[in-house]
Amino acid sequence: MASKKLLPTRLGRAAAAVTAMAFIAVLGSATTASAGASCSIAGCSSSVNDTSLGATALKNWCRGGDSTGAWTATQPTCKSDNVSQTTYYLSSGGGHTPYSEDWDTLRIDAGWCYKVKFVIDLAPDFTKTYDRRGTTAAWVKAADNADAHVIGQSSSSCP
Q1: CB 151, CB 126: distance < 8 Å
Q2: pTM exceeds cut of 0.85
Q3: What values do phi and psi take at 40, rounded to 5?
């Protein structure tokens, strides 16, 4: 009798484990794949400016295999899903890329140091500092399940 009561529990746990693994596989592939111009099953990427200075987001990330927080010193200029590269000005104090649109790249201005907090769905948030003082601009990836929040900017020291 005891084994009959355990059978549904074992099947339920197995089904839950398989479902969780499938979800993680889909989410994992969405966070590392080359970003397209439209939102994925994991959602849309966005950029938010929480500082008193302006910032700039770009529509497309042009390299495959990178995950949230990766950066390049080469400006992304590609077309993705037939959408040309576009920039969007993030005003101070909460400027946000358009909702329900996918914005994959945040620009770190030449000569500046930015602190960026990545808020990621179903994963731990993390913060990175990008120091471009004395050098060229950089571009930072936000995957389809992430928001890149600029939380500090300075040209004299790193926040």
Answers
A1: no
A2: no
A3: -100, -175
